[in-house]
Every structure is written in structure tokens, then in C-alpha cells.
Amino acid sequence: MFFGGEPLSNLPLIKQVVTYAEQRFAGLGRTVDFSLTTNATLLNEKTVDYLNDHNIGIAVSIDGPPAYHDRNRITVGGRGTYDLVAEKVKLLKARYSARPVGARVTLTRGITDIEAIWDHLFNTLGFHEVGFAPVTAGDVASYNLSGDELATVFANMKRLGEKYLEAALDNRSIGFSNMHQLLTDIHEGTRKVLPCGAGVGMVAVDHAGGIDLCHRFSGSDMPHFGEVNKGLDKTGLNQFLNQRLEQRNLGCNSCQIRNLCAGGCYHESYARYNDPLKPTWHYCELLRDWVDFGIYTYTQILAKNPGFFARYLSPRRAHYETSQSA
Ligand code: SF4
């Protein structure tokens, strides 16, 4: 997964990694999968063709219509990048056919209008899916959503979720990634003991080769779990994961959503409590309410249009999920 800063600022390295990994995995008789999350500004015809030829999944970082996108996504000279990104999205639509392209929206302070953002990205720009990532524990505190704003974000996610349900009963998808993901977990009976794949099926490698739990820790003060040239610190990683399991067992074992939340994001806890081992107990109620809403939505679809899952959720995992999960 090629993930920012902006990965396309070092396209030669991406090509080197892709060539190496394709050859190495082919030699092992295995397949390898790539995805890229990009702000799209550096895309050109040649690069799009390269991504297409190598079946590299793409998610575009875009925060909605210009009034929202241009608040934070600006050039070094201070100009909004919406117009440029919208042009590049057209380029992608014209030349890239390897996989469906998703939009990844970062919700920062003052931006909670989920429905308007989804409408613009799905209906006007034509993204296949739109996923929302609320910023609550970013490095720059002034970008973080306030507690009230986060509650509004969840309320608005539920409003878009109602639209999702209406469409699902009509056998249509409105490409709301967060809802897709939640329903997939419920449908597949996901039972997490750890909150995500960080440190288990995924690590992040920073620009200098340091290995971190995930991209959110790259650049933080948390010590690395090894280095690319020296190898992964498996002992340290195992210790960390075991300690987290013990912490979780202390406080989450009676929670009804423990199999889906599993104590919440490590980095969220790190930013909030300076302790990645601590579960994210500061927004449990919001999460429980969101999962309850997901269960309600799931049961409605299951009762009235069960074919929706096979048509829209199962195929998605194969070609789409990796680029959105970043
Ligand atoms: S919602 Fe809270 S109590 Fe429940 S599993 Fe998540 S962090 Fe633990």
C-alpha cells in the first residue's frame, strides 16, 4: 500500500518496489497486490497508464466540493487544489480501468456535512465509493474535530446510512464505504481480538526505512519495530500485541461490540493518552451507537433484499478494500 505524504512524489521508488515485488512473488508462485492513496495532483497520462498496467488500486484523497476541499488541501503558494484534482479525476475516468476508484475524505475541524460531500463525490465526480476518515487525533491539534463535531459526524453518517438502506432495498449501492465495511464485518461474522491488522498483517515503512505499527505512527516519537535493512523486531511486536490483549481484557470484555471494535485504534489512544496500549474508551458510546445502527440496517436488508450482500459486498473485497482501508 503506497500511502502518504504523497507517494507519487517518489514514483521511481514505487516502480522499483513494484518490479521487485512482482518478480519475487512470481518466483514464489504467489500473487502480490498493490494500492495507492494519492492526492492526484501529480497524475499524468503516463503515470495513470503505469498504474493501470500493474493493476494498482487507487483511492483519491479529496475532501468534497471546493468549499471544503480547498480549506486544507492547498499548494505551497496557498491556492486550493480542487480544480486540479477534479481534472485528474477526469483523467482517471478516461484512462484507468483496472479497478473501481474510491474517494477518501478526511474530515477536519468544522467539516461534518457528510451527505453533501458524498453527493458531490459520488454523483458529480463519479467516484465508485466514498469513505470518511474523521480526524480526532492528528498531529496538528487545530485540525481535530471537537467532541461535539465528532458526535455530529456520527449522526450524519447515520443519515447517509439511511439513504444507503433505502438504496439497498431498491437493489442499488450508493458507494458509502464506511457502511459497506461495517455491513461486511457483520455479514461475515468478524470476530476481532485486535482492532486492525497493524503489526499482524501490516506494518508501515517510513522514508528512512523505520518499521512502524501503521502509517499513522510514522514520524511519531514511538520507537520503531525494526528497520528494513535489519529486519522486523518480532519480539517487540509480539510483546506489544500481547500487552494490548491484556489491557483489552481488563475493560472491553463485557462490551457488546468488542468483536468489531476490539479496543479501538492504537494511534487514537497514543495521541489521546500517550499510550497505544489503552483502549479508546473516550468514544465508546458513539461507536456502539454506530454498530447498533449497522445491525439494524443489516437485518432490514437481510429480511427484504438478501441478494444485496452477494451483489455488492462480497465482490468488493477482491478488488477494492485495500486502497480504502488506508
Ligand atoms: S467500544 Fe469501548 S469498551 Fe467496547 S470494545 Fe471498543 S473500546 Fe472497548
Under CATH, the homologous superfamily of the domain at 7-187 and 306-315 reads: Aldolase class I
Radius of gyration using CA atoms only: 20 Å
Could you give the distance between the termini?
A: 8 Å
CATH class of the domain at 7-187 and 306-315: Alpha Beta
Could you give a short account of the major beta sheet?
A: 4 strands, parallel
| DSSP summary, beta strand count | 8
Specify the helix fraction band. Answer: 40-55%
**How would you state the average pLDDT, rounded?**
91
Bound molecules: iron/sulfur cluster
Number of helices: 13
Percent of sequence in beta strands: 5-15%
What structural category arises from helix and sheet content? alpha/beta
User: So what's the overall shape?
Assistant: globular
Topology:
Elements: H1 11-27, E1 35-38, H2 45-53, E2 57-61, H3 66-72, H4 82-95, E3 102-107, H5 114-124, E4 129-134, H6 147-169, H7 177-188, E5 204-205, E6 211-212, E7 226-227, E8 231-232, H8 234-251, H9 258-261, H10 266-273, H11 284-304, H12 307-319, H13 321-325
Parallel strand pairs: 1-2, 2-3, 3-4
Antiparallel strand pairs: 5-6, 7-8
Bound molecules: iron/sulfur cluster (SF4).
